[in-house]
Amino acid sequence: MASVTLHAAEGSRVPYNILMIAVDDLNDWVGAFGGNPQAKTPHMDRLAQRSMVFRNASCAGPVCGPSRSALLSGFRPSTTGAYGNDTNMLDSTIVQTHATLPEYFSKHGYTTISSGKIFHKHETANGFDSGHWAYDVWGDELNRGGQKPESVYSRNKGIIAGKQIDNPKHKVGGGSEFSWGVTEKGKDFTQDYRTAKWFEKQLQEQHSKPFFMLAGISKPHLSWFVPQEYYDMHPLESIKVPEYRMDDLDDIGGGKRKRPLEPEPDFLWVREYDLHARAVQAYLAACSYADDCIGVMLDALKNSPYADNTIVVLWGDHGWHLGEKLRFRKATLWKESTQMPLIVHLPGMTEKKECYRNVNLLDLYPTLIELCGLPEKKLDGASFKPLFDKPEMPWAPTVTTAGKGNHSVMSEKWHYITYADGVEELYDLEKDPMEWKNLASEKSPEFDEMKAYLRTFMPVNEVDSLPESKEKKPKNGSEEAPEPAEGTPKKAAPDPTIKPRRNLAELK
């Protein structure tokens, strides 16, 4: 690929458009990333074949809210205080005065268009000129596709293959319902597929200004209810589960920690009822479903007038455990939770390039500003535009934060984790990619030196957490988007739970 050209800055051509696709809870189980050879994601793979594939991308926070807040505000959790899903970054003083990513592009002449989950929950009305409000859409299988009762597996409800288990073990546990199964109806009835088809129509329209489209795909977020065709792509008898060790957590302790870490309820339930292969199958099926939705949008872009002048960015908001470290879900500082796919296609790219430098989703805001030739803005992230021309140039380690005082510092060889209670972890990723052996407490000048070096990248002045958001959730108690009616106009009617759009002229 030739050197990156900033058309907007040079004025030689119209500015770049942007199609950004966010995928909820997508780990590296994508063909192009090799996280699981059983993955079947042909559409993401073909995008990778003409893009830069960032093999060591991390999130700023290992759960939806903090990760998305950092990416879309440009400020890390330790700057805003948006450490968890129950906080609203708009309550942060710095975010109140600075434009979010879509707001900044809107301020500089872009039409910003959104549908699906982009901002987390209550942080929705931020710079979008058209689209459907970006609520979480986790419950679509219940209200749109239905579910085949005999296919349901649910830890929280004690259901296996649609049957209620007497006195089920490991039923109690937090988070979204840990469940999966097959939808009664096909993909045409599911929310993510409708989101993809909505963007297909947007790409067929004529746009008088450059556009920034932000498309949110909710799967493979729990629960994993998708049509049968995606389960059929992953026959149960062919499923292999990730490696794990029952003594994996024994060497993580010290500091003020009183009790050793224990396996999580999801893992114990899956192990108790021999459901690990079924859980892996369900996650793979949900990834293939998400990939199919992504394919709709990629095909629409390919067949549109904008194909040769559009940046495509695809990212998962954080990683996901499927048995590694004796747990499922995210919200940890281990590699399985902090790293996720990041693919960026620039106009003119025709071949796959891979970059192993440690970039962060936090860096996307300044990177897109520079690629599109917009005025520079001071943010916590750093533009990784230089890596498109020189993917092997030196690059610094990157940080993921899970609450004040809890940080992961990731380099290409070493992974250092430190917690507010004084516990430390250090892993040699070249020798121990599964992070089974914690080297932090071993007496070694090399390890001490590496820990001291990686500590220098941690945030210095960390703010306290923002208060829990008091925003109201939809009346049905779910966190899903209301289904858009057929023929919904571009200017969707504001939802009563959403704050009015901010005055862009007053934002930095």
Task: Walk me through the structure.
There is one protein chain. This protein has 508 residues and is of the alpha/beta class. The protein has a single domain (12-401), classed as 3-Layer(aba) Sandwich (Alkaline Phosphatase, subunit A). It has helices at 7-10, 42-48, 64-73, 77-80, 93-97, 101-107, 140-145, 191-204, 228-232, 265-272, 276-302, 335-338, 364-371, 386-389, 445-455; strands spanning 17-23, 52-58, 111-115, 130-131, 153-154, 159-160, 163-164, 179-182, 211-217, 224-226, 310-316, 321-322, 328-329, 342-345, 353-360, 398-401, 407-410, 414-418, 424-428. The strands form five sheets. Strands 4-3-9-1-11-14-2-15 form an eight-stranded mixed sheet, sandwiched between helices. A four-stranded antiparallel sheet has the order 16-17-18-19, with helices on one face. Strand 18 and strand 19 (424-428) form a beta hairpin. Helix 2 packs across helix 11 and helix 8 (191-204) packs parallel to helix 11 (276-302).
